[in-house]
Amino acid sequence: MQLLVTGGAGFIGSHFVRRILRADDIERVTVLDALTYAGNKGNLGQAFLSPKLEFVTGDICDAALVDDLMARHTAVVHFAAESHVDRSFTTAGTFVTTNVIGTQTVADAAMRHGIAKFVHVSTDEVYGPLLEGVATEDYPLRPTVPYAASKAASDLIALSYWQTYGAPVCVTRSSNNYGPNQHPEKIIPLFVTRLLRGEQVTLHDQGQHVRNWLHVEDNCAGIELVLRLGTPGEAYNIGGGTDLSSKELAAELLRICGVGWDRVTYIPDRLSNDLRYAMDWGKLAALGYRPACDFKAGLEETADWYVRNPDRWAPLSRSPLPAVPSPRTASSPVKERLYA
Ligand code: NAD
Question: Which residue's alpha carbon is at the smallest distance from atom 28 of ligand 1?
């Protein structure tokens, strides 16, 4: 397989590239990434040692470039997107351009070059909030924020290329990912890096918003399964992690970092904040998907990664590292290493 991966310098894309390079049937992986504020070649690390990897810096909205690259590949996994909900409140236009026009540009080239499989990577946020029950893949799309709306639009654009042209499109919709390499603007790294700096962390409203937390490696396993076995024209939910309110998540992170609730400040809710997402992922389970990562162990390893790699996240965070970290208030594996 000659695989084009868009957004492969981002959080999930970089884990996927490192994973797929290990497969014997992968002859070439080309990463197309614009290296926005969210992209970082460092996320690919040792992958650059592979002779199978090529890196192209470029925009998915550049139709000529995408067309040129698609001609040399047999499959595409499309991660590239604007991915941060809070940013979509102020720069919705960028989200529409990248997520909608960009996806249409990639789908168009995939269709014209007769690509064997086009996996479009999406999110459970397209279903909008569910106060009870779970969303299967045919649940109505009711996104509430510009990010989720642009992803819902991109799902429909991608799937329309199956309906209209028979392009073999699959869509994956995963819950919230966690793991190493995530940009420090996202909640788990934001909490950990702020606590490491001795700063306060914040919870919206009463911290009641529920998300399903999925280890990035489990998501990548699910995406690979869809790449290999997914039926064209179908969407696949990828979940099965741990459901937590943001207050419950904060409790875990405070425990791991060995600090108390005095480090948490409650702030008014953001402009729009869906109360709960929940999905059924039985369709992918029928293809053999089983999430394998233990949440507590995965979260501790993730926090530990941020302790050991300040060079990777400190330049991306807003404020400089303080000279003296906050005093030790309780023991934890992460904190032991921090103060060692
Ligand atoms: P990310 O923000 O970490 O990475 C996005 C990558 O896309 C970056 O490397 C960036 O440089 C690149 N990019 C952005 N605009 C581009 C453009 N115009 N042309 C080429 N490259 C461009 O995002 P992520 O968290 O890795 O998410 C990857 C995909 O998974 C996204 O489509 C996102 O919607 C989806 N998703 C993410 C999560 C999550 O929890 N992070 C959950 C569900 C779905």
Answer: 79
